[in-house]
């Protein structure tokens, strides 16, 4: 009897536990469902002047129509807040250095590096100085965000995971999101200057000129076929650090994935070369890719200043001011690529025991201003953090030296709402004039209008330099009063190109100009230029009957023109003597020959081997330097000091100067074979077969929601498929595991119905939404899908 009672009790306990588990699962499901966006029905919106229609298509892309720009801003905020609030929250926290409040002490290093710039305080100052109309636009957007958030039945699911409540959106937060993009797009300039400073300190002037060239044969500027600057002579001797190994060398090639993180292409074909006489504009911005995607697609309809209804279509950045970032307004289409101009100076600060508490800057001796910036930390007391600021910028200690960070992002006007002008410009010249006034990280701006005109300029804040040139790309001495940037460049001084004779324009993060304008922009880390050369030549090959399909197809070009010469070098050195008794070298050669498609295709082993060979050479020659640079800044590398290092290495292999051969190798041939052996060791680590080392195996998408990375148990539900991706960094089709074409757009203004678009993630950041991964497969395959929203599937009406 007692045994039967015990069994009954055990069964009851098990049934109770099972019931509790079921209830917990149901509660979790209901919680998740409760944070899905409203798609249909009617919602009362405070402060609206009239009703606003939000009509979504099968992909969740909204056409937002309203009677005023402010009402449309409110509705944009509403859909952003419902679909993307957690993403927006992360962006404002990145801009303000406030991640530890959500994620705890592990986020403190990032927060401190961001808080040094005090962008939250700068955002409040910028907001206070804005014209009433612009401030009102941000206020209405913030109201829409908060109403959208509060209209959800449950807080966004991410907050349930991290155990926090969402914080209301404020108008200044939208400016912080733009400053977050400054970190993303100009954040490498500081480690780059540190790396170049190390090179300068450990090389002679002649060695430095050779190692850090200002241009190479790969450059394809807008204003010339090439840059005819003679290369610097190779000095007789290499620096003492050259070719030295690092201590504690990692098993894998240290830098083989570095080049994944350079990006963005845009181009335009003029009416003289298009099939219907209108300009065609294409843009694919390269960024880190995660879920949800960076961009949020929209079409906006509202009356312009004359009362005429305008339709602007393209992408917005959730959290940023509610403006179309790139797209078309029916008269003008435009796109951006990061300009990589010189917008930051590191100024070494001097001290003197006779002047306690003071520092010497280019402005003279001054006492730094101290700002208390306590950082809130989840589960802990606030972290005390003090910023020391000077007239040249906040101070940072690096390698026993103190630097002021003099960054254009600190200047008044670094963030503004002037991108709004692009929504209603009617012709190319208006767009070019507007671009020079916008407050964003400086971008290559390419635009075209419905009359067939095309043009280029820089959009965003540029730096006025008293002495433009190479010296500003190295850390500066405090007494260099006339060096460095002196203030923002006047819009009238921005370089501009209109309607070139070639009928085309293209930029891809490389040096855009070869003439005087190059000095105005400066070199803040230009790409080597191979990608833009390939874009330029592919556009030229379209001839005089270019159409949207052909212009879009350039973005899909994965031909391996940059890596092909490295394959030839590897094949040349792998002669019969090098293969004797070396079966892995023989296999390396066989695969270079037989598994080479001439493209960065997913099935190509040869492409991956040739690329590894090139980076193996980098490790042989620069690995010791990279070890030293990492001690200064984790992002400081030889490749960040100059992306042109492959051209430097190619010259050495061609000329083979004795004074540059690393002492560990008997000949240049032996050095190249050592690079082959490094590639083999890397790719066969753990017993892997070299024949299985396809490019697709390496280039697998790892596109994940941040919560999926934080909690691996949820990763399978918060990730895109691990697709093998064709493409690489030095070709138009840029693709990496977590980096690549964050959107692809090709459109003719006034002919938007013919335009095409795709992006790697859907509209929603919610895994239960039908729009979470909608469109991802089209992006993987490069399928050209419509630029404009399709047939209406859902209608939400926002009413006063």
From TrEMBL:
Ca(2+) binds at residues 193, 342, 345. One of its GO terms (molecular function) is hydrolase activity, acting on carbon-nitrogen (but not peptide) bonds, in linear amides. The keyword NAD does not apply. Binds 1 Ca(2+) ion per dimer. GO terms for biological process: antibiotic biosynthetic process. Its cofactor is Ca(2+). The keyword S-adenosyl-L-methionine does not apply. Keywords: Calcium, Hydrolase, Metal-binding, Zymogen. CDD domains: Ntn_PGA_like. Gene3D superfamilies: 1.10.1400.10, 2.30.120.10, Glutamine Phosphoribosylpyrophosphate, subunit 1, domain 1, Penicillin Amidohydrolase, domain 1. InterPro entries: Ntn_hydrolases_N, Pen/GL7ACA/AHL_acylase, Penicillin_amidase_A-knob, Penicillin_amidase_dom1, Penicillin_amidase_N_B-knob, S45. The active site is at 264 (nucleophile). Pfam families: Penicil_amidase. Belongs to the peptidase S45 family. This is Penicillin acylase family protein. It comes from Massilia cavernae. The lineage of its organism: Bacteria, Pseudomonadati, Pseudomonadota, Betaproteobacteria, Burkholderiales.
């Amino acid at each position: 009897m007692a045994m039967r009672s015990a069994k009954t009790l055990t069964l009851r306990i098990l049934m109770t536990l099972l019931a509790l588990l079921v209830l917990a699962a149901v509660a979790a499901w209901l919680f998740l469902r409760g944070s899905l966006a409203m798609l249909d029905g009617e919602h009362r919106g405070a402060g609206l002047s009239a009703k606003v229609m939000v009509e979504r298509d099968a992909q969740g892309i909204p056409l937002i129509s309203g009677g005023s720009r402010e009402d449309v801003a409110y509705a944009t905020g509403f859909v952003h807040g419902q679909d993307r609030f957690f993403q927006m929250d992360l962006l404002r926290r990145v801009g303000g250095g406030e991640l530890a409040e959500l994620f705890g002490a592990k986020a403190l290093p990032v927060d401190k590096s961001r808080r040094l710039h005090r962008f939250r305080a700068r955002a409040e100052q910028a907001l206070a100085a804005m014209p009433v109309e612009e401030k009102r636009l941000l206020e209405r957007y913030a109201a829409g965000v908060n109403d959208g958030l509060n209209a959800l039945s449950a807080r966004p699911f991410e907050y349930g995971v991290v155990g926090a409540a969402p914080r209301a959106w404020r108008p200044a937060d939208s400016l912080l999101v733009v400053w977050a993009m400054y970190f993303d797009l100009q954040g490498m300039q500081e480690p780059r200057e540190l790396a170049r400073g190390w090179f300068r300190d450990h090389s002679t002037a002649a060695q430095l000129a050779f190692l850090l060239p200002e241009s190479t044969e790969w450059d394809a500027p807008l204003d010339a076929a090439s840059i005819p600057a003679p290369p610097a002579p190779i000095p007789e001797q290499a620096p003492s650090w050259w070719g030295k190994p690092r201590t504690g060398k990692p098993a894998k090639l240290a830098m083989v994935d570095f080049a994944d993180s350079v990006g963005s292409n845009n181009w335009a074909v003029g009416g003289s070369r298009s099939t219907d006489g209108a300009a065609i504009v294409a843009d694919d911005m390269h960024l880190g890719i995660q879920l949800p995607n960076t961009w949020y697609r929209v079409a906006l309809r509202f009356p312009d200043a004359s009362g005429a209804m305008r339709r602007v279509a393209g992408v917005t950045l959730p959290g940023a001011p509610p403006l179309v970032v790139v797209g078309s307004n029916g008269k003008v289409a435009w796109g951006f690529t990061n300009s990589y101009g010189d917008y930051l100076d590191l100024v070494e600060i001097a001290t003197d025991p006779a002047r306690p508490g003071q520092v010497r800057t280019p402005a003279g001796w001054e006492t730094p201003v101290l700002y208390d910036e306590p950082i809130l930390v989840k589960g802990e007391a606030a972290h005390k953090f003090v910023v020391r600021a000077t007239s040249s910028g906040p101070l940072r200690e690096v390698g026993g030296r103190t630097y002021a960070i003099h960054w254009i992002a600190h200047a008044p006007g670094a963030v503004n709402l002037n991108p709004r002008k692009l929504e209603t410009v009617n012709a190319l010249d208006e767009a070019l004039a507007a671009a020079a006034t916008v407050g964003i990280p400086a971008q290559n701006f390419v635009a075209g209008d419905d009359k067939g005109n095309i043009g280029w300029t820089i959009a965003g804040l540029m730096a006025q330099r008293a002495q433009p040139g190479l010296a500003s790309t190295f850390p500066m001495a405090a007494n260099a009063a006339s060096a460095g940037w002196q203030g923002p460049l006047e819009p009238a001084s921005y370089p501009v190109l209109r309607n070139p004779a070639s009928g085309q324009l293209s930029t891809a993060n490389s040096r855009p100009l070869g003439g005087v304008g190059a000095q105005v922009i400066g070199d803040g880390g230009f790409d080597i230029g191979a990608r833009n050369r390939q874009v330029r030549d592919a556009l030229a090959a379209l001839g005089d009957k270019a159409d949207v399909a052909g212009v879009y197809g350039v973005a899909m070009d994965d031909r391996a023109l940059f890596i092909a010469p490295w394959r030839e070098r590897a094949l040349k050195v792998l002669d019969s003597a090098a293969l004797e008794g070396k079966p892995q070298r023989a296999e390396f050669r066989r695969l270079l020959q037989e598994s080479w498609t001439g493209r960065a295709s997913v099935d190509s082993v040869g492409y991956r081997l040739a690329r590894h060979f090139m980076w193996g050479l980098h490790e042989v020659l620069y690995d010791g330097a990279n070890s030293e640079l990492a001690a200064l800044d984790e992002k400081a590398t030889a490749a960040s000091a100059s992306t042109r290092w492959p051209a430097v290495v190619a010259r050495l292999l061609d000329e083979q100067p004795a004074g540059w051969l690393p002492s560990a190798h008997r000949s240049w041939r032996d050095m190249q074979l050592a690079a082959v052996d490094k590639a083999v060791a890397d790719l066969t680590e753990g017993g892997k077969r070299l024949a299985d080392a396809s490019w697709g195996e390496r280039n697998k998408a790892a596109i994940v929601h941040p919560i999926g990375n934080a909690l691996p148990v949820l990763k399978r539900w918060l990730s895109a498929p691990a697709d093998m991706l064709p493409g690489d960094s030095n070709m138009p089709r840029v693709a990496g595991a977590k980096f690549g074409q964050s959107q692809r757009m090709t459109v003719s203004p006034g002919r938007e119905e013919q335009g095409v678009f795709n992006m790697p993630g859907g509209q929603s950041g919610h895994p239960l939404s039908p729009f979470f991964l909608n469109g991802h497969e089209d992006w993987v395959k490069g399928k050209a899908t419509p630029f404009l929203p399709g047939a209406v599937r859902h209608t939400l009406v926002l009413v006063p």
